[in-house]
Amino acid sequence: MSLKLEDILKEKGVPISFQYGGTAPDEIVGREVKKDPHPRVKKLKNLFLQTLSSASCEFPYWYTRKFQETEGDLVIMRRAEALKSAFLHITPTIYPGELLVGGKTYHYRGSFPMPWMSESYYMAKEDELFQAALKSGSASAGEVSTFGTGGGNVTQSVGKVTSIAGKFGMRAEEVPALVKLAREWVGKSVDDLGHKYEQMVPEYQMKEQIMRSVICMFDSGYTLPQGREVINYYYPLQYGFDSLIEMCNECKDAVAGRAHGDGITGMDRLYFYEAAKTILEGVSGWIENYAKEAARLQQVAKTEVERKEYGDLVDILYHIAHKQPRTFREALQLTTFIHLAVINEDAISGMSPGRVGQILWPWFEQDMEAGRITEDEVVELLECHRVKFSLIDCFACAGVVGGVLAGNTFNNLALGGVTRDGKSAANRLEMLILEAGIRCDSTQPTLSVLYDDKLPEEFLLKAIECDKMGAGYPAWMNNRGGIEFMMKNYAKEGMDLTNARAFSIGGCLETSPGIWKELVLNDRKYWIPGGAGQPTSVGVHFIANPKVLELVLTNGFDHRTGEQVYPPHNKKLDTYEELWETFQEYYAMTCDCLTTTNNIQHDIWRKHNMAIFNSLLKPDCLDKGQHIGNMGYRFNATYNIESCGTINMVNSLAAMKKLVYDDKKYTFDEMKEALLNNFGFKTAAEVGSFSLGTQEKKDGIDKYDDIHSDCLRAPKYGNDDPYADEILRAYEEWFCEMCGDYESLYAKPLYPCQISVSTHGAQGAVTLASPDGRLAGTTYADGSMSAYPGTDRNGPYALFESATCWDHSQSQNSQMNMKIHPNAVIGVEGSKKLLDLTRAYMRKGGYHIQYNIVDSKMLIDAQKSPENYRELLVRVAGFTQYWCEIGKPIQDEVIARTEYEGV
Amino acid sequence: MCELRHDDCRNFIPVDVAKGICKLTNELVMIDTPVCPECSAIPKCKFCSNYAAGETPFLGECKASKKGFWTYEDLKAFQCEDFAAKKEYTEVK
Description:
The complex is a heterodimer of chains A (903) and B (93). Chain A is an alpha/beta fold and 903 residues long.
């Protein structure tokens, strides 16, 4: 039997320690905080846990049909009419006991493909899908019920259910319609058109090779062209649909035929207002269809209680289909519909509701004052809201759904922060949002606290209580850091301190611009925050930093694909400085070709698939009469360059510097040879495990043992060691600056975004062994500030010192995840310790920290017996996910993270 | 007259591609298990007099559309303004 690395190191007296600050007890320790949701919510949540991700063709069918019927009209109008038709044809489904209704489709956890965005996957799989559909026979109930092992994922075709991309199930009877729909969009989709024109970029060949090498994770123009942004519910909440439609008509009259000094886009305003009016009618009608369904259900209800509940729904839904909401429940219901409408309009992950507790405060306050609702009823509604959001699926291609999103949709709800005049913005409703998050632990909406020293202790401790429930939320973001980033990045577009305070988190932890709008309810005035910026899911998506370094060492040649990705640099790399400069050169080439090609994809998107509904929601599109593609939003400098694997890159540079250049213990060629031979180990794929300690040695190869040992012992980030930290500081100062060298299609500079989501698994899989001792195919360290598992040996405060050696406000974000044993933070004292720890990191200038408060042994047990852990939630990197719905590379990485036994 | 499935029935609340809730029993039922005598058809293209089956399995044509647009058997038609139930099916629109 092959030796595992952890055993080898143990024998040598240098064990990889995955625990710090003590030793965990032998038995599995559960989570300290555990509450149950209200009975009706428990039923709805249990139904969710039994539900498969289900795709259908209803929406794309009506979209495609209307788009074709309107051939010859302006693209924006064809799209508006197509969306309106699709919304009006959605079959409304209301589930027993629901207080909040609405869904993307008629399935409970439904979604649908958008072949107008990209149809190539279905065309490539046409035969396979057809055969699976035609061969399908009747499966027994037992067979179909076995789906549970992957949670809601339909990982394989069974009976009359066809698996698509290993995630979504589609009825076999609908598969021919899916293929037919895909055919209708060949040559017309954003993917196809973008591809046609991106090939005209001189650097296109390099871009293709970079994509094949998985140095970059995915194109953004046709995969997720929107998202990681903050929605704005203001206009429907303030005016209601009827008034908005009326406003569009008035605006049309005001601009029709008039350029008003803008000879390029002035005339476009008429078409935008007409398109906005059209889609508002569609969404209003869609809500009304739910009202009709509720009325039908009221007629056939068996009990008086049911009749009353359906009757209430009828009243609520008819009202919010047209008017400003009157109550907290109506406002929450309306925001739910608006949210679903936006994510039905486009392929979006990370459409975040923002600071909901502050947005809905006017209704909460007035309902409470009038005695119309109790806090317990509010919590029940908020629990329903959690179930509704957890049901959201994003239908995108396999690589994006599995490799990046891990099935998550990142609807981030932010709490805390400060008001427009700088006071604590936390309120009682936010306490109830936290309570609902504790009682109804689920993936969505994930919660984030905008930490500010002004926030009251009671609120902060409530957030800590929620963390101790173990689902990984709320995450903690630095409010001051976020405001500084807003001012740095958006001042040129008019951002001031007041509106900088309205920022929120879009997606995992993407700092996103917002503004305050004055809302009037029953003659009382309130200032509510909401998103006012473009998506931040756009730009250059996830550059694998260790992979770029690998190609520096191999003269631009990828040994995995056998391709020359970058032009050979043909340098001897005799000095560390030369190595670092070459890394910068290759990195710059990467950013350049990915920016230009993605700009073309997004340009096609804005011309052919522009957001209309999302646009009209966000300031200042309605004021300007321009959609997102014409820069209708207040803030447009949102394109970014995302990195992955920062810490493995830093540790690798530290090892190269120490072993090759400073101490000269090994030559460059000796290091390279050891890396190409994976230090004498099998690959992670061969072993079937993706964490470092479990890798297996090849029999009889000992020649790389010494160099591997030295690489593992070389200075590592996370220990307050200036040797490694100085490399991180130099990298960050360069990276944060260089992103601005590239320009988006909106003629705005790019900026850095430093999160990993799940890409550290996929990109680790394609990376050879690295000089830090990491072995081929194993997962990178998560996030951007998390230590590589087992290498942070000096405790959390040393880790914080390392992490804050640079100015985090220069970047949209940074990301640190910590795993803490439940015993380490038990009781009131434990809560205070955890808050002190959090506060310490925030005060040092760290941007983000989040906790997995879980016993690693529970995760190991869950990996062996997933059927016993359907409800186990863990924090990955910016999001919470059900353990059984996460791929093995990420599971291995979460298990391997250093577990803190004391803080 | 085609054989009805659970997801063709008015008493069926669709949960996912494999199952739903039967409103008569409030229990989960698998779509592809035999239906009970209470099963009554919902509006779907395959139950519509404007639907003409095509050569490709599960696909057909909507005769109500001006341009003769294609459609598919299982498309729900609750919100379709042109749905007209075939005589042999009970339409509960």
